[in-house]
Amino acid sequence: MSLAVCTMVLGTTSGAGKSWLTTALCRYYARQGLKVAPFKAQNMSNNARVVAAAPGRPKQGATPSGGSAVHAVTSVGAEFSGEIGSAQYFQALAARVQPDVRMNPLLLKPERDTHSQVVLLGQVSPELTGLDWRSRSAKVWPVVTQALDALRAENDVVVIEGAGSPAEINLYDSDIVNMRVARHADARCLLVTDIDRGGAFAHLYGTWALLPEADRKLLRGFVLNKFRGDARLLAPGPQQLQALTGVPLVATLPMWWQHGLPEEDGVFDDRSHSSGTVTRTIAVVAYPRISNLDEFQPLKNVPGVRLVWARSPADLAGADWVILPGSKHTSGDLAWLRQQGLDAAVAAHAARGGAVLGICGGLQMLGEALIDTHGIDGNAPGLGLLPLVTQFEERKTVQHRQSCFAEGMVGPWAALAGVPVAGYEIHHGQTLQHSAMAQAGDIAHAVLPDGLGWQNAAGNVLGLYLHGMLEDPAVLRALFGASVPTLDAVFDGLADYLEPHFEPGFLQSLIARR
Questions:
Q1: Distance between CA atoms of 364 and 327, rounded to whole angstroms?
Q2: SS3 state of residue 460
Q3: Which residues does 31 contact at the CB level (< 8 Å), separation at least 6?
Q4: From the CB of residue 275, how many other CB atoms can be counted at a distance below 10 Å?
């Protein structure tokens, strides 16, 4: 049995366009009838999705007697769900395959500037979370190669995404995501750079120059991304670069603001909001540990909606809705809210009857208090906009959910009454009605079952544990009377964009068997 051909997208920097190009290649090759899978050995992101387990992995939370956390997630057992970076989730959909945890075996979720939660094959690993970077790399490399080799055995093509830059020489010896993966898979590599930042030729040449000779030989082509202007002005740069390195420039990709793919590494750009008359302004509070920001991508495509980030009270001026999104460190982001004066601004917006939506960590913030007896997140007073209390638990809830909003919803969210909804949960907190406030008559109205969602008496404040609500077509129709392009159409658009901008025949030669 032959193993899949591997192609790999490397970048000169974070944000160069690796995720975008990897997604486009997944759909491009899938449309040729090939079995395609994405792979990224390690992703650092607080944007995560719930996916299926790899075949033969253990039930969530199960650890063999006397075994380590690493052993637990690589032992045979029942099927379970896990989480991977959102980019690999979307890449799998682009490849027309079911996403699973092998496609992103290691996920690092930053909680503070100096600390990340480590997720291995979809499950939180306290053991790995406590290790330093280099010790962790040595432990997880066998898991990375097993996941990649399994995907290679099942597919025709594996499209691999690198991370950051492959030329971070301080990290090279403990690399498990760039050139070590490329060597293991004998991958045909592209190196992409963001020319809009400036210094693109220096970035490409400098990256090439810092790589060992054996790794340079894996580079098949350079890609200029986000180009604006007349491509003839690039000459003689590409020719000189090829003379210096032996690597050709194989594509120049023009700037494209509205491709429709959810953001991976950063917040959206305000220049890319929907064109036409603005009828509704939605402000998303952008705290430092914001998570799952990709779920707001559909709002960018709704006619008449302007989506803005709020980092100060002034940013809420004129907003119709205020959204408190997910957070990887809820108590820390609550402290930041108060430092900025945004707590008072959100409360004032709610007092005027303005719509407020809290999702996951945002829901927890809307309550009266955060209680943490296990050292998961931290204790903190909430914003007091819903009579709820959140208790953090050691076990993490990671699952898909389908539900239906209750009849009789009122206020700005009344259009959701009776609407079916699908999404996913990723949270440590468990949230309940504040018992003393209930006795006093202040009751949060359950709008989704099993503690998934509550609304205040006035109806303008809504809190949900359900991520992905704003990606649900039924919800978008109810709230906006509009439909947005499907993800499948977005993926096709990305694939369509590639061929005219790559050298003729190059994309086929990239996966040709030797």
A1: 10
A2: coil
A3: 492, 495
A4: 9
